[in-house]
Design brief:
The complex is a heterodimer. By secondary structure, chain A is α+β, with helices and mostly antiparallel strands. Chain A has 7 helices and 19 strands. In chain A, helix 3 runs parallel beside helix 6. The longest helix of chain A is centred in the N-terminal third of the chain and has 13 residues. By secondary structure, chain B is mainly alpha-helical. In chain B, 66% of the residues lie in helices and 4% in strands. Chain B is globular, with a radius of gyration of 24 Å. The mean pLDDT of chain B is 88. Classes of the chains: A alpha+beta, B mainly alpha.
């Protein structure tokens, strides 16, 4: 009888059950923006967190939130309401969660990013780069994954440049050739001209529409051109040689795949220059044309 | 639940006024989020029932609605995703998501349960003090056919119950009593026969050619006036002077003098008409 009771209590504890608020996660941050990160509404490096909060509860503790459907759907944050083709979406460590904010538990190191944006082009943006160095530092869903840099030319300067960036962040990265990783569960960063990356299934998404990749840019003409899209998925401008892209997407529920790529080697070099916390911070993806880092979706004609 | 004729001010008021009085109590329950006000409303209805001589019936309805209230509290605690004060963590509930029971969801569920209790109590009070025939008489000028249909329908359930009792008694007198199904079959056949009789009678009496009846003139009594004023006062008090109380994301509200004054004013408005007992037939 005592043994059965102990077993039941242990099972409940392992399932996350218990009395009270639970254990508080550490190093949590909160960012609230609108227009794909264009305008910051709230930025808290150390938001108020009590116990085992969910993403929703943490947001409610730190901002004025209006909800619907018994608190399962965010209607407004700080008086900015959704509707009319725009709504609030959230990303934890740069990954769009597959469930509601009220059901997503916070973990230590989580960077929670709420953004109100137009979903005319797509409602699903599986991964964004604006939380860098997350998810490489703390993983996502409370699970850290090994970091793998996959380069088409491992000796190339661009490949070393990406590795150096991670080294500067005190992150250990495994360097290898494209699709050579032995890890089934890893966070891959694919580095190289886009035309050389297409063997990777996730890379093919970057040729498709926004609704497929969640990236407001697409490679055309076999990777020789990069078309930048606006928030409704329309082509704003098309760049040729020397254009770079830093973006992330997911393929069939696998961990997010990051791309540091371009239309050619010069484009990749430009993308490597943009691959840092300052340039990527608060952006869904970043294109580089010439010396200019352009946050995506593009707004300039 | 049937109408009980008693010597009380609310029984003496015309049916439309009594109905408005009952509706005002329900309106106040919907407009007031404060648990003190809702609790006072439930007590007021019980007091009104006692002063009308139907207190036991209202009390029975309160007792009856308690399990439903408990169910509402439990369901809301499991379903609601709101509230910041976590009391119990039940982990991942599969399709139900993250099951965290919060103090706020329990409190909000209790408030919803109180609203339900008030509604059920008002329904019990209304069924006991409002003469249904009078209500139907007042409605027949608006829609004669609907009023007639409602009249027949409202009499159907008690009639069927009476039939069941009568046939059941007769069945039990037999050496081998028939089962419930046989009784049900007899009642159904009887009801169908009776409906044909009713239809034939209506046809013979010229139901189809009925005209709008003349207005029945009845002088307004002091009770009509008192309960009408009371109903208006209750709604105005609840709408214009609400006692604020928020449940989400955290409980925000107090049991201060203002809340007690609001509840007291509602009590005064609701019970004052019962002080006037002149002209009540005993």
């Amino acid at each position: 009888m005592i043994g059965a009771s102990v077993a039941v209590v242990a099972t409940l504890a392992l399932a996350g059950c218990g009395l009270g608020a639970g254990t508080k996660p550490e190093r949590v941050s909160l960012l609230v923006t609108q227009g794909f990160g264009a305008q910051t509404v709230l930025d808290k490096a150390a938001p108020k967190v009590v116990g085992a909060d969910t993403v929703m509860r943490m947001l409610e503790r730190n901002a004025k939130v209006g909800t619907r459907y018994s608190g399962g759907f965010v209607e407004s944050i700080g008086g900015l309401s959704g509707g009319g083709g725009s709504d609030w979406f959230y990303y934890v460590n740069g990954v769009q969660a597959g469930k509601g904010a009220a059901d997503t538990k916070l973990h230590s190191g989580d960077h929670v990013w709420w953004d109100r944006h137009d979903w005319a082009a797509t409602q699903t943006i599986p991964a964004v780069v604006g939380s860098f160095p997350e998810p490489f530092t703390d993983g996502y869903g409370g699970k850290r994954l090994p970091l793998v840099i996959e380069c088409t030319q491992t000796a190339a300067k661009s490949c070393r440049g990406v590795e150096d960036e991670f080294t500067g962040l005190k992150l250990v990265a495994s360097l290898g050739c494209l699709l050579c990783s032995q890890y089934n569960e890893s966070l891959p960063v694919l580095v190289g001209p886009y035309a050389t990356l297409t063997a990777a299934p996730a890379a093919l998404k970057l040729e498709g529409p926004v609704s497929s990749s969640g990236v407001y840019a697409r490679f055309e003409d076999g990777g020789r051109k990069l078309a930048l899209l606006d928030q409704r998925g329309r082509v704003v401008r098309t760049a040729g040689a020397g254009a770079g892209l830093v973006a992330a997407t997911r393929y069939r529920g696998q961990p997010p795949t990051w791309f540091v790529t371009g239309t050619n080697a010069a484009g990749v070099a430009a993308a490597v220059q943009a691959f840092n916390t300052q340039t990527l911070d608060g952006h869904f993806a970043v294109a580089v044309i010439g010396d200019a880092a352009i946050p995506l979706p593009d707004s300039e004609p | 639940m049937t109408y009980l004729l008693r010597a009380s001010p609310l029984h003496a008021a015309r049916a439309s006024v009594a109905a408005a009085y009952c509706a005002s109590l329900v309106t106040a329950a919907f407009l007031s989020p404060h648990p003190l006000v809702l609790g006072v409303l439930a007590l007021l209805i019980l007091c009104a029932g006692l002063m009308c001589g139907v207190g036991s019936r209202v009390a029975r309805s309160l007792w009856f609605s308690l399990p439903m209230g408990v169910a509402i509290v439990l369901v809301n605690a499991l379903v609601a995703r709101e509230g910041l004060t976590v009391l119990v963590r039940l982990g991942d509930g599969g399709p139900l998501g993250q099951l965290d029971i919060t103090l706020e969801s329990l409190a909000f569920g209790a408030k919803e349960a109180l609203v339900l209790i008030v509604i059920v109590a008002v329904a019990a009070l209304a069924s006991a003090v409002i003469d249904p025939d009078e209500v139907l008489r007042s409605l027949r000028r608006v829609s004669f056919r609907s009023a007639l249909t409602a009249t027949i329908a409202t009499r159907m359930m008690p009639l069927l119950a009476l039939d069941a009792r009568r046939i059941g008694d007769a069945q039990r007198c037999r050496p081998r009593p028939a089962g419930r199904l046989a009784v049900m079959r007899a009642i159904t056949a009887n009801a169908l026969d009776r409906s044909l009789d009713v239809a034939a009678t209506l046809e013979v009496r010229g139901y189809g050619s009925a005209r709008r009846p003349a207005r029945a003139v009845r002088a307004r009594s002091r009770h009509d006036l008192a309960f009408a004023v009371s109903a208006v006062a209750i709604v105005v008090l609840a709408a214009a002077w609400p006692a604020p109380f928020a449940y989400y994301p955290t409980i925000a509200g107090s049991f201060d003098a203002s809340a007690f004054a609001h509840a007291g004013a509602l009590g005064l408005a609701a019970l004052a008409p019962f002080a006037q007992r002149r002209g009540i037939s005993r």
